[in-house]
Structures are given as structure tokens and as C-alpha cells.
Amino acid sequence: xxxxxxxxxxxxxxxxxxxxxxxxxxxxxxxxxxxxxxxxxxxxxxxxxxxxxxxxxxxxxxxxxxxxxxxxxxxxxxxxxxxxxxxxxxxxxxxxxxxxxxxxxxxxxxxxxxxxxxxxxxxxxxxxxxxxxxxxxxxxxxxxxxxxxxxxxxxxxxxxxxxxxxxxxxxxxxxxxx
Length: 178
What we know:
- By secondary structure, the chain is mainly beta.
- It is built from two helices and 20 strands.
- The termini are far apart.
């Protein structure tokens, strides 16, 4: 459809070389919304999520999925686009894909983080992860383990250590031989 000018069309305002449509989700490449007789050329992309055509300027590409509207997506902590419906909010406000291999759930704080960040510690006594900015850790050199500060005594006790008269942790065998 090549003409010098085009009439203003308020109902069938979308079209291409094959015809006119009133469906803005169609694959149209022309938008007849100008009263001056011109049309706007529009590049369209198939939205794999909503299964319709959308303007290229409103599309983002999700690796391994395809194109979708920005409203269906968000950037993850790496700057990649992911579907909102498949995202998990991290404790710092960023997002990750729910299947991200670095994603870990911190049960003690009911939040998610990613392993590659240095914001957690593992308590070898409780067998749980903790957020470093919410909990304090202690490394027990004598036992060669890191624990939450609340479990230092319990870790020594479970390892068979006792406190001596000076309130210091010692191996139980060392007290009996003295």
C-alpha cells in the first residue's frame, strides 16, 4: 500500500502491505494515527510470553527464552533480563532467576542470596548459612570450624571440650591427666 498520503483512520489504524486492522497486537508495521496524512513506521517483535506482537522499543530479550515486553521482565543481579514470574528477590533488593545455580536460601533469615557474594557464612555446628550483616561468626581455631557466635559453647561441648577453672575451653582428656 503505497500512496502519497493516508486518511486519518480511528478504528482500523494499524496496517501493513496486506491490509488494515484494529488489533494493536497484530504484526502491523504502519500506525495510521496522524491527522496530517502520514503514518508511523513501527518495527514489531513477537512476544514469546504474551504470544502477541509488540513494538521493538518495548521488547527485551531473555537468554534461552526469547523476546517479551519489559513489563514481564526484570534485570537480575548480573544485568541479564529474566521473567518476573521466574524471579526471586534477594535480600539486598536485587533479583535472581529461581533456577540460578548460585542462588541459596538462608533459612535463618527467610531470604535469598547468591553464593558468589561474600555476604554469608556457614555455621558448621548448626549446619546452616547466615547473613554476615545480620549475624556474627566466630572461627574456633582449636576445632578448625566457623560457627555462629551463639553456638561457640555448644560447638566446644559437642567436640568433648570442657571449661577449666579459668573459664577457658580445654580438651576433656587434658583435665583428667593433670
